[in-house]
Structures are given as C-alpha cells and as structure tokens.
Write a structure and sequence with these properties.
The protein is mainly beta and 279 residues long. It has two domains: 159 residues, Jelly Rolls; 96 residues, Jelly Rolls (Sandwich), CATH 2.60.120. Helices cover 6% and strands 44% of the residues. Strands 3-2-4-5-12-7-10-13 form an eight-stranded antiparallel β-sheet. Strand 15 and strand 16 form a beta hairpin. The N and C termini lie far apart (46 Å).
Length: 279
C-alpha cells in the first residue's frame, strides 16, 4: 500500500477542486453545536492517475467513479481548530480518506491504517495518531470505522508524528470514581478519553488552552460563562481558554477531546500544554 506525502496530497486535492466542504466558522461566543443539527457531508475517495482523489458535498456522487469509497463527514469549525467526525461503512467500501489538514485522530471504531512518521500503522478502536499523513485506509478487508479528527496546531515546539495505543495508556480513576481518564500523551499535545459516572459534578474551573470536545455518550449538563447546555452523544463542545466551565453528569456519559491554542497564542510551555483534570 503506497503512501502519499502530505504536500503532494494537498496539491493533488487542490488541483482537483476536491477539498472537504467547510461549514461557516462558529462565532467566538458559540460553545456547543448539536450533532443532530449539523448535516453530514457526503464524501468520496478513489485511486486515479497514480494519486488519491476525493470529492465532497454535491460533487461526491457525480464526480466519483464506480467503485469509489463513499463515506460521511460532520465538521465544526471552531475559532481555534476544526473537529471532524468521519464515518465509514464496509458496505460502501470501508475506509479511504486523504489526510490534508488533520493533525490528530482518535479511532472511535476501527480498524484502519495510516502513515505515522513514514511507517504504515494499523490503528484499532481507542488508538490515537498525532501528525498522521497520506491517507486513512482499510486495514485488510473493508470494515466499519469512525474517526474523530482535529486540525489543532501543536501546542509546543518539537512535535513529531506518534501513534499511541489504548492498551498502553493507563486509565486513571478520579473524583471518587466518577471520572475515568485516559490521557494519550505525545510530543506537542494530548488526547483525553473521558468516562463520567451518573451524579458526578465538577466545580467551576478554567484552563490556559481550549478543549475541543466530541461527546461519545450522554446526556449531561455543561455550563460555561453563565450559560447552561444539555449535551448528548454526537454533540461538539468548545471549552474556551480562560472561561469558567463545569459539568453536572445526569447519566453515564463520556467524551474525547484535545487542546488548542487560544486565539492569537503561540507555542506554550510543555508543562502547561494540557488541562489538569478536576480532583
């Protein structure tokens, strides 16, 4: 399976006019986007002319040749980074997606494979890759897969590609058992996978970086800057750097998240790169 460099892939996608259809950016005052209110964007990808090609939106059906992989994307463009959820179906060809601006991926459902630091790596459910390149592809026979991808720049200098296995990440139990946290750490940032128990609550707190959240299970209540939201599976949340926020977990819940630099901020001290979970 050949790999395509990020620069060549970006050029090929731009030349074909096949960039992913982008929604309008959210205002800085928007904290939650309901998943049910964000339409899925139809996507298609295929090999052609020695390169990987893709189409999105209205072009996906008409531009794609017979046999192209068809899949769906949901995107939220926050002021500090974009969050994408890519859903692949084995009956529509499984996994094929050109990586362009994605810097981090978390595999909600796998397997799939991609290029990490020049090596083809198979990622399974719960695995993370930082700075993947080339494309997401089937790992063997076509299979269902769901990927959360972020475009967040690295928080610190010296970031390098990395794959982190769920099996290698300890799950920490905090808050009297109400919070279970896996922190995937790698040069430049981290991804956190969080499980929350019914009845768990946090006190108002803030962080030095944004947290861009995708809710994997709910419902629960989220508070930020005096506003209250009920969020559930499929919703997108932005915890804004410096803003007071807290949680009231009404049912068993969970989410995955990464950090993003605040608007206008440059690289930060590695010791301040990730949020400290509530104790």
């Amino acid at each position: 399976m050949f790999a395509i460099s990020r620069s060549l892939l970006l050029a090929a996608v731009a030349a074909a006019g096949c960039a992913v259809t982008q929604p309008a950016p959210e205002a800085d005052s928007v904290y939650v986007v309901a998943g049910e209110d964000r339409a899925s964007v139809p996507m298609a990808a295929w090999e052609g002319g020695g390169s990987l090609q893709s189409a999105s939106g209205a072009k996906a059906a008409g531009a794609a040749p017979s046999g192209a992989v068809q899949y769906d994307a949901k995107l939220v463009r926050w002021p500090t980074a974009t969050v994408k959820v890519l859903t692949f179906d084995k009956n529509r060809g499984g996994v094929l997606h050109p990586l362009t601006d994605e810097t981090l991926i978390y595999v909600l459902e796998g397997p799939l494979q991609t290029n990490v630091g020049g090596k083809i790596v198979v990622l399974n459910t719960g695995d993370v890759a930082s700075l993947p390149s080339g494309a997401l592809r089937n790992a063997g026979a076509p299979a269902d897969a769901v990927v959360v991808a972020w475009t967040a720049p690295s928080l610190t200098t010296g970031a390098t590609p990395a794959a982190v296995r769920m099996a290698d990440v300890e799950q920490n139990v905090l808050g009297g058992g109400g919070l279970k946290l896996r922190r995937y750490q790698f040069p430049g940032n981290s991804v956190r996978a969080v499980e929350l128990g019914k009845g768990f609550k946090t006190n108002p707190n803030s962080a030095k970086t944004d947290s861009l959240i995708y809710v994997t299970k709910g419902p629960m209540r989220f508070f930020q800057n005096g506003q209250e939201f009920t969020v559930t599976k499929g919703d997108f949340i932005r915890e804004v750097a410096g803003a007071q926020h807290n949680w009231d977990v009404t049912e068993e819940s969970g989410f995955v998240t990464t950090s993003a630099l605040p608007i206008g901020a440059g690289p930060i001290d590695p010791d301040k790169a990730t949020d400290v979970p509530p104790q």
